[in-house]
Fold each of these.
Amino acid sequence: GTGLVPTRLLAAVSGALASVVLYLGLRARHPRGEALAPALLLGCSYFAISHSRVGLVESFQLLLIVIAAVSVRLAAERPAWGYLGGVGLVLALLAKPTAIALIPAFGLFWLLHWYAARRDPSLPPFQLESPRRAIFAAGAAGVLALALWLWPVRHEVLHQMRVSRIVSFTDHGIPRVEFLGLGFFGLRRNGFV
């Protein structure tokens, strides 16, 4: 339900999960100590604690931002992670539009990765497939989110209208017919004009 406790609980769990996801994402490439420090800094920061305590949507958005950022970083080695990065980006945007800053940040990351991978052979090679997959997933998730958002409106409109009906008559006695919500057909001798 809605209320103070569920709102704060969602924010607190989201804040804790953001730290766990950050740790697991960094642990994939770095030793335990190097991965633990940023996760603890995030989890113990004033920002994370105050937003989790008050129950603001920023805690949930932070979780989605961390999921997207970690996925984009992992996509540098395995392009399939780009899908999760794109979906995480769209979900973060749906949580709060301020996540729009991730788009240029991800673009800058891929540009710097492309530049650095050409100069340093120890880095994983740049694969154009990673940004392509992230863009595809973001587009698909965006279309799905828009469709789900518009579904109640579409459902209501379909219930209110019939497939076809006569809505009025023209000056010459020709009935104006509405067909699937479009009222620009005139019926004359079993044909549309």
Amino acid sequence: PSIWLKWARLLLVAGREHADSKWLHTALEKCHKARALGASVVDLDCVHIEILAELGTVKNRLKNLRKAEEMADELVEKYPKHVGVRSSYGFVLLSLAQYFNCLDYYLLAVEAFQTALSADRTLHKLWHAMGTVYVTIAPMEDEATLQLERAVRFFEKAIEINKASVYYFSLATAQVLLAEQTDDATLVAQAID
């Protein structure tokens, strides 16, 4: 069962990176196969709700987002300190924030990511997700410079843990936005390096 769950996770990452609903639907199929073979329920449910949330984002379907939120709420109630549950809950909230363009959902997502990171500070995807949140909310806040500085720090932390190319791209984007916000040309030079 674990190979099916790993496959579902891989397809989730690919589907998220490329906004590809076909990969996300295939990931759901792998979850169903893993469930039939007796995979760990909590781990499986975490992946399942992230897939549903991402499908809601990619296909712009509130129904998928609400189902993911409902499942995530139940998991958080059962396993309030489980790192995977908190992480997945954060991604559901992030999807809802993107759908509604709602600052409160973005801040709730950060809170969920911080809770998970307090238990495991090596979760690079959460550092990246928090950076993404702060880049997104910067134009919504009065203190845009502060939000972009936070984003840069979170992207740097993600890179420190995992040198994924998407993290470098995100960091460079945040540095360019920060340079525009502060009129600091040295940040543009850092982004190019």
Amino acid sequence: VSIFTQTPAWGFFFDAVKKGTVILDITKPISLFKMHLYRWLGQKLGQLLLFGPMYVLIYCLFILPNIPAFEWEQIIAGFISMMLAMMCAFTFELAFSTITFFTNSIQGLNEAKALLVTLASGSLFPLDILPRGLQIFLSLLPFKYIVYTPSKVLTSSDWLDYFTQGVYLQSAYIVILYVVYSFIIRLALQRYE
């Protein structure tokens, strides 16, 4: 799951702002959001075509036999959860990337963000092993819904609980992060006018 939810290491705007070519992106007849979304989805489609068959094979050989009552609904729910996780990761990265417009160096912030996302998303270790209080705190942040939730939907016997909660929270975070992005990018673009 984590390979499909990864975003650019330096964010979406870093190179363009650093080189001063961001004005070329701003003046295009397509919004910055759509431009980066289409570019990112194209990259993810390439990854899916390259790695997808291998993941399906691994899932069918190793994970599927360990699920007591296999249901096609679980696979469909996992796919939907993964698509929402991808959009959640995208909108988070897009909102975070707007910091580039207001700082000279984003390296430290990006490394801290990468560490936080890796630890809090469940891609390094399962969040189930954390103390209950920390699990509750992490459920308030969007990171859990990027890797942990789709993984649980695909592999857990109580996948429906993870799916129903995840769909609502992933969708809410996508909207919230898009609003944050829209607000910050509006402020950033005013600096270029």
Amino acid sequence: LLLRYCQRHLKWVHHFQAMTTVPAKAELFSFFSGNGFQPFFTQSEFVLDVSELPAAQAGQLVPIGVEEYRTLREELLSERIHIDLEPDGILYQHGICQTVGGGLYRLEGGESPALLCAENAGYGTFYIKELLGDATAAQQACALLPTVTPQGQRYFFRRPGTEKPFGMLKFLDPTAEEGWDWSQSGYLGLAFD
């Protein structure tokens, strides 16, 4: 009932053509599939202990603001289907991360750009909720993590990829779905977790 209300509200009040969801558990993918959603957003996830991070390299991770993060994020994701987060969504993530000893960072001095959003989960654990950039830039950013997270011992990473289902999509307007290529996958990125 609540899901149907949300769909109607988004379609008729806000004129949205589609809606997304991120199931909290793998088992919920089947629940949402039964309600018309289809798996579409994927990502790569990996975990590294501080001793497994690449060797330190030149460059630095520089704290940045919401607008700069959003602009660079859009540049880095321009070749991929993705959710363009509004400034308020990134501001929300930025606030959570800063409150607990993390933040939004840009790689400076790298061969190519990289961005990351780091949240301190406590007890030496950091969630790198988003790591963007090509493989070389991402590796360089990983190597520099101890400079901005000196208490970090273990890092959980999320970045664009196709290995793990992450979110689902449902079109609210059938004409918007016409010609949609469901064989592709998109990147949702910073979920509100």
